[in-house]
Amino acid sequence: MRCRYRYNAWATKPIGEAKAITIVAALELGRRRRLEDSLRLDKIESSHSVYKIMQPILGELPHEEFWILYLNNSNKIIHKGQLSKGGITGTLVDVRLVLKNALEVGATALVLCHNHPSGTLKPSRADKDITQKLKTAAQSLDIKVLDHLIITEKAYFSFADQNLL
User: pLDDT per residue over 134-149, tens digit each?
Assistant: First the structure.
């Protein structure tokens, strides 16, 4: 008996709308799962631990956002908040708001995080300036700026790791 149908491993068929929606839903579930996992990491031990927490939030955004992790003496996150949301090339950072929030939650240390939608990890002059400005202002209140991370979809840049703090 001869088989009427032949299997061709090289033949491709386009997927339908229902299958495409299923794939998109599966990817979104995976992203949310990573976000849930990142919420369980509440102690900051390195720049990589910050990246694992913040990448699901910032990594794939088409616009720039600036977030602050407010930490206690044990480097545990006591508050995580978005400071600003900007455009494709930048966002504003108000030093007074950062320090007001730090005092309200009782933070003793901060980790600054923002994304670069372009995918470049090189800090701009504005990135370096705001880091120094926040560090100087926070020191006057005995609050340490431990790090500033630039986060992209697949990698990060740490000011502390590069001795820029």
Answer: 999 999 999 999 999 9
Which of these, 83, 39, 51, 46, lies nearest to 150 by C-alpha position?
51
Helical H segments across the chain, by residue range: 17-40, 47-58, 95-105, 125-139
Contacts of 76 (CB under 8 A, 6+ apart): 42, 43, 44
Q: Are strands 144-151 and 109-115 parallel, antiparallel or unpaired?
A: parallel
pTM over 0.85? The answer is: no
Question: Cα 110 to the chain's mean position, in Å?
Answer: 15
What confidence score (pLDDT) does residue 148 get? Answer: 95
* Domain definitions of the chain by residue range: 17-158
Average confidence (pLDDT) over 13-27:
81
CATH architecture under which domain 17-158 falls = 3-Layer(aba) Sandwich (3.40)
Beta bridge partners of 165: none
Angle subtended at Cα 122 by Cα 139 and Cα 61, rounded to the nearest 5 degrees: 90
3-class DSSP assignment, residue 147: strand
CA distances from 125 to 3, 15, 17, 102, 147 (A): 69, 46, 45, 25, 16
- Summarize pLDDT for 82-93 with one digit per residue, the tens: 999 887 777 888
